[in-house]
Amino acid sequence: MEKIVNMVAEKAGISPSQAETAVRTVANFLKDKLPAGLAGQVDNYLKGNDSPNSDPTSGMAGKIGGMFGK
């Protein structure tokens, strides 16, 4: 989760603490809205359990995109 928190902090111009709050808020929103299988992927991604050899956003983005037919 540290990588995405740092990215949000940098891009939004906010402190890492504020960015962590934002990331957790969005993650919780997604987990509430996604099917259980995908909701678990949000936690896995934030824990760093996404595909080790891929772009950190590609695994989840592909799954979410597939959900919407993209």
Characterize the largest beta sheet: strand count, sense, and whether it forms a barrel: none
How many individual domains? 1
The number of distinct β-strands equals: 0
Q: Classify the beta-strand content into a percent band.
A: under 5%
What's the Cα radius of gyration? 12 Å
Helix content: over 70%
Number of helices: 4
SSE string, helix = H, strand = E?
HHHH
The global form is elongated
Look at the helices and sheets and give the structural class: mainly alpha
Termini separation: 26 Å
Averaging pLDDT over every residue, what do you get? Answer: 81
Extract low-pLDDT stretches: 52-56
Notes on the structure:
It is a single chain. The chain is mainly alpha-helical and 70 residues long. The protein has one domain (2-67). It contains four helices and no strands. Helix 2 packs antiparallel against helix 3 (36-46). The longest helix has 18 residues, at 16-33. It is elongated and about 30 Å long. The protein starts with a helix and ends with a helix.
Protein traits:
70 residues; mainly alpha
What is the gist of this entry?
71% of the residues lie in helices and 0% in strands.
List the helices and strands and how they pair.
Blueprint: H1 2-12, H2 16-33, H3 36-46, H4 58-67
Helix pairs in contact: 1-2, 2-3
